[in-house]
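Example record

One chain of 141 residues, shown exactly as stored in the release files.
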Amino acid sequence: MSRNPASDLIQFIAGGALFGSGGFLLANQVMASSAFAYRGGMGWGRYGGGGSMFPIGTQGMGLLMIPLGIGVCLMFAGAYKRWANLLVWASLAALVVGVLNSIRLTFIPTTLWALATYIVMIAAGGGLMFRSLRDVDGKGP
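Predicted structure tokens for this chain:
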């Protein structure tokens, strides 16, 4: 069975457009907010109470800066390369997990029709992209 590379490219681009637009529309229905709450008073100025932001989420993330600093110090000193890399990468991974853990995701109410449209667009786009990537002899995935 002969395949036409030009039609495969067009099929891949159309699938990518469907997949990307469906993913964008679905992600557009999500509201991300930080884990900070506002605690404030009434009014403005010195006697109004001002207000402040305080963290709700993960506490003690500043403590992760200690192993990160030690790892960077060891890395620049040129000693204990394995320990330095382990400390740096483990600290960065823990920081990323902590930041992602403190994000609050809420879905904006949407209709079932819109949600089904987004999911069908993502699935159809992914199917078209995978179909265009099959082997030439048709025995591939």
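Notes: Strands lie at 30-33, 36-39, 52-55, 104-107.
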